[in-house]
Amino acid sequence: MKKYIDQGKKDTRSGFGAGMTELGRKNPKVVSLCADLVGSLKIEQFIEENPERFFQVGIAEANMMGIAAGLTIGGFIPFTGTFANFSTGRVYDQIRQSIAYSGKNVKICASHAGLTLGEDGATHQILEDIGLMKMLPGMTVINTCDFNQTKAATLAIADHQGPVYLRFGRPKVPNFTAPDQNFEIGKAVLLTEGTDVTIVATGHLVWEALEAAEALESEGISAEVINIHTIKPLDEEALLASIRKTGCVVTAEEHNYLGGLGESVARTLTSHFPAPQEFVATQDTFGESGTADQLMEKYGLDNKAIKKAVYQVLKRKA
Amino acid sequence: MSAPQDLDKIIIQVRRDIVRMVHKVNSGHPGGSLGCTEFFVALYFELMELKDSFSMDGIGEDLFFLSNGHISPVYYSVLARRGFFPIEELNTFRLLNSRLQGHPTTHEGLPGVRIASGSLGQGMSVAVGAALAKKLNKDEHLIYSLHGDGELQEGQNWEAIMYAGSKKVDNLIATIDRNGQQIDGATEEVMSLGDVGAKFKAFGWDVLELEDGNDVKAVIKTLKEAKSRTGNGKPVCVIMHTVMGNGVDFMMHTHAWHGKAPNDEQLQTALDQNAETLGDY
User: Fold this and answer.
1) Beta pairing class for A172-173 and A164-167
2) In angstroms, what separates the C-alpha of B95 from chain A's closest C-alpha?
3) Going by C-beta distance under 8 Å and a sequence separation of 6 or more, which residues neighbour residue B39?
4) Is the ipTM of this complex over 0.90?
5) pTM attached to this predicted model
6) B56–A67 C-beta distance less than 8 A
7) Active site annotation includes A48
């Protein structure tokens, strides 16, 4: 099995910040908006180098989405920045009407997604955002797995015409993808080849999936791990090719099982190749305070949970 | 796009368009549309600097944003009469496969429209964003916007109003249609807005009152005054007092025609009060 090396833990939001710095230097149309969370979004460097292209909107996310839509009309590419909860649920109708339905080229960049925001608790831990965003016609939904990929995705979405939801997180997680990777929106990344089970993961659960696959290998189970950074449009072809080979799938995401990656994969299977699937996701629940690691364990989102789901799905396959 | 100068004729023809459009499909919002007819005609035929052809980015011209999207009939009629799209297309208002959706949208590619509106309270933010884009582009042209008074009950407006005042977005002229009516009755009764002008001033805006928003000369005069006050560090607000349903006597001074179409007989009465001037579509 192909091995991946953690180049040192880093937060994905810093990947976003690094991407913004680079965009600030190379694309004069890129502008940044933030709702009082500059430090959390790691965009200090962009602001320092491009003060005229940064808009501090204060704690007013609805207004931020509308201003972003207006800025596109003058030809700019606005990147909004706040926590995932305030980037989606709080401003759903603003995104729906002023951005998605209006077809505006806004990049909604959301940090602190999911449980691993940690101690702040459930008011801030959105586990519904992927569902909310993927249901909007024309919205591209991306959830990156590490620092390097988040930076690459930030650069890539600037060149994509249309609204994008880019989701990343707060904690430091293993950084294992290539530093100067080419990020292709909508293209699944096959990480390890296997024959017994396909593990389809998104976000920082991709690393957990790799760890699970390694442990499974020592038990004689061959797992194929696919990194789905783009949940919409979903790379159905890559998924089906793998699942046709392995005959079963485990999906893994830091999101409610309702509305997330797992459901998108299930819909694909139902239409093209019905096969057993297990969901590693939160079970229609709110989160709570705790450290990221504690929450990942309690809510069944770590490599142990993925392993368990693999055993389960293999039983069903047989 | 040439601009005919006889504004009164255009106003009467636009009123005819409005009542005919909503009558045909037995739906739509004639009251607020009629109340803002003079404003739209003044804006599009007298005040705004417009390019010959429509482009979404609107660089090098004035832009207008309609926040209270339900008064789409007057918007569509004026856009058509100003040459943005064929006048005959008014025939398709609210019909299946039309570019003239119930509420304005960019989705079907209708020239003249740059944002969808309908869900209220969002247009001020969009107008502010477009004004910021003008500044970044070093484009001296202005942003105009229109908002219902009842619409100010939506909180997002006040986020945008605070932003524009605080950040000195002084290339924006936001007009409030102060007709005092909303769906459930008088705005004063549904939820009083208090002193709207004082509120805008408190948020750092320059405020102009337009006592008769149905007198086209007064509209032009006030909007010209508003224009002269741009570029001075403050966004400009025009509180425009209008009569809902203006120009059709039985629709005036009531919220009853907010979202109701006239029947055949009522249509005829409305048309009799506004004899054809420029030719019906």
Assistant:
1) unpaired
2) 19
3) B146, B175, B177, B213, B219, B240, B242
4) yes
5) 0.97
6) no
7) no
